[in-house]
Specification:
CATH class: Alpha Beta
Structural class: alpha/beta
CATH architecture: 3-Layer(aba) Sandwich
Strand order of the largest sheet: 3-2-1-4-5-6-7
Number of strands: 7
Mean pLDDT: 95
Strand content: 5-15%
Number of helices: 9
Largest sheet: 7 strands, parallel
CATH topology: Rossmann fold
Low-confidence stretches: none
CATH superfamily: NAD(P)-binding Rossmann-like Domain
Length: 253
C-alpha cells in the first residue's frame, strides 16, 4: 500500500517526461493515487502524448490559469473524472523573454510573469477548493527566491511573489484543512529551464557548491519531495518551503 493510496490528485505542468511534474505524476500513481493532468492550447496534444508514458495514462483537462473562464469551470469539468480532490501540484511558470532583463523589462513583461507565475497559485487553489471537501495538500514548485540570481531577473521577483502567495494561501486555506507548501528545487534541465537565457550560467556551478552534489538531469529527488508533501505524512506542516537542491541554499559563497 502506497503513501498516496486512494488519493485523487490534479497535476499541472506535465509537458515532457523530463519535467518534475511528470515524475510527480508517475510516483503518485506508483504510490496509489488517481491522477488528472492539465494542459491547454497547443500543448494539449503534447501532454496527452506524454501522459501515455505514465503507468496508467490519465485524463488531461484543459486549464490556462490566466483564463478566468477555465478557472471558474474547472471543478465542474473535473467531476467528469473524479468526485473530489486530495491534492494539487502547481508546476506552472511563464515569463516573456523581456522579463529576463531586469533593467529593460517592461511592465507588460513583468505583469505577464506575475500573473502566470505567482497569482496563479491563488487562482488555482480557489478553483480546486470546491472539490477539496475533506482538506488536502497543495504543493508548488519554486526556485529559491531569497537571492538575486544571474539571468533570472523578473522571474526571480515573480518567484518571490509566488513564495509569499503560498504563505497567504496557507493562512486562508488552513482553517479548511488544506495545507500549502512549496518545494524549492535546484536547477533541472527541463524545457522551461532551457528557455531561460543563460541557464547554463545559473546551473553550471551548482554541483560544485552542493554538499550532496547535484544532478540537473535527475528530477526524481524533487518529485519525491512533492509526493511526500501531497501525502498525509506532513499533517501539521503548511506555509513551508522544502529545499531539494543538494544543500546549496545553506552554503555561503
Amino acid at each position: 500500500m502506497g503513501i498516496l493510496e486512494g488519493k485523487k490528485l490534479l497535476i499541472t505542468g506535465v509537458l515532457m517526461d523530463s519535467s518534475i511534474a511528470f515524475h510527480v505524476a508517475k510516483l503518485a500513481q506508483e504510490e496509489g493515487a488517481q491522477v488528472v493532468l492539465t494542459s491547454f492550447g497547443r500543448t494539449m496534444k503534447i501532454t496527452q502524448t506524454i501522459a501515455k508514458r505514465l503507468p496508467s495514462p490519465p485524463p488531461v483537462v484543459e486549464l490556462d490559469v490566466t483564463d478566468q473562464e477555465h478557472l471558474d469551470s474547472l471543478a465542474e469539468r473535473l467531476t467528469e473524472h473524479v468526485d473530489s480532490l486530495d491534492g494539487v501540484l502547481h508546476s506552472i511558470g511563464f515569463a516573456p523573454q523581456g522579463a529576463f532583463n531586469f533593467l529593460e523589462g517592461t511592465w507588460e513583461d513583468v505583469a505577464t510573469a506575475m500573473h502566470a507565475s505567482a497569482y496563479s497559485l491563488k487562482a488555482l487553489s480557489v478553483a480546486a477548493l470546491p472539490l477539496m471537501t475533506h482538506g488536502g495538500s497543495i504543493v508548488g514548485l519554486t526556485f529559491d527566491a531569497k537571492y538575486a540570481w544571474p539571468v533570472y531577473d523578473w522571474m526571480g521577483v515573480a518567484k518571490a511573489a509566488f513564495e509569499s502567495t503560498s504563505r497567504y494561501c496557507a493562512r486562508d486555506l488552513g482553517p479548511r484543512g488544506v495545507r500549502v507548501n512549496l518545494v524549492a528545487a535546484g536547477p533541472i534541465g527541463t524545457t522551461a529551464a532551457k528557455s531561460i537565457p543563460g541557464f547554463e550560467t545559473l546551473a553550471g556551478s551548482w554541483s560544485e557548491r552542493a554538499p550532496l552534489g547535484w544532478d540537473r538531469a535527475d528530477p526524481v529527488p524533487s518529485a519525491k519531495a512533492c509526493v511526500a508533501l501531497l501525502s498525509d505524512w506532513f499533517p501539521a506542516t503548511t506555509g513551508e518551503i522544502v529545499h531539494v537542491d543538494g544543500g546549496v541554499h545553506a552554503m555561503g559563497l
